[in-house]
Amino acid sequence: MLQYGDGAFGGSVPGHRVAHIPAFERTTVSCPNPQLSCHNTTAVSNTCCFNAPGGQLLQTQFWDTSPSTGPSDSWTIHGLWPDHCDGTFDSFCDESRQYTDISGTLQDFGRQDLLDYMNTYWKDAGGDDETFWEHEWGKHGTCISTFDTDCYVNYQSKEELVDFLQDTVNLFKTLPTYQWLADAGITPSTSKTYTSAQIQSALESQRDGHPVTLGCSSGALDEVWYHFNVKGSVQTGQFVPSDPDGSKSTCPSTGIKYLPKSGSGGGSTTTTTSAGTSPTGSPFSGKGYVNVVNGGSQNGCLISAGVWYTSGTCATYTASSSGSGFTLSSSKGNCGVVSGSFTCGSSVSSPTVFTSSSSNQLTYSGSASWYASSVPSGSDQETVYSSSSGHSVTVQLQWQSLS
Fold it and tell me: PROSITE patterns under this entry (predicted)?
């Protein structure tokens, strides 16, 4: 199908803050000189590199309080929707790709990390996350042209589904609604109310002045839609903030409630603590997170395989007393130092007995220093080593008790 694009955009888009979405072994077709969607002046036939007809992409988020879903200090994902640049949209565009068993698919692709994140931040208020994910893919993902199967080189079945889920999560991570509102003094409360102008100003200031679409139910803020045009494909392109193309906000101008979550939603975000402080609870006992302290402050944590991650959900570790120290395990299995690296899983035949420092840091062979080759960013992960040989970054591993 012949579509249109301006054909004039090369490099970054002047005057706009763009979201660069990290890639993870993409196998999509190459897109040289990508063009910006919804800017139509010349004909473009390659809809693997130009989003059409759904050229405006909406990253939508929930704030659920009754019942509460997700962490108490984070919004959750609703979806990624393609609009026709005028507020209209298609839905359920390919009946042959109404995929099910999304959890199993992610595990088959070796994406347990993505599944773990979705289990915390992509939540269904009714408790059926799996069906919710299936719906979002089937209704909206199948209508994004750059996810068509012929946009892939050596296509694997359901590869585009994994891309859709990953790209939705990656874009969500660039839009920390809770933090942006909190930075403007807008925090959940049972008594305070806010104006639409206050909320819009807090979010617009992070988007080069482009407004968002706000959703309210019974006068309480519960949804926000972020609007983008995309320069190139969703998988490898740039998301450029844009004004809403259709539906208007449903919140009143004044008296908007922003209710707190009950705390029952669970989950954890990566928070910052100063080095040397001891989180509450017994050190390395029961359940907890293993946070990574780098340069004097927390910068990410260890995920279930024992690697360092800075932009996802911390894995829950179990510390069990053993002799004069303790052992650690995660959902992957026992943890230990194998060939000089910290790891968890089947390769650990016998768990390592660790000790802790007076400042609640993990020690091995008498040292609280651990090492990495670089500081991870985006979806990158870094192995943590017990020796500095060949590794220039020094970190400490600090316990945060959940008991």
Answer: RNASE_T2_1, RNASE_T2_2
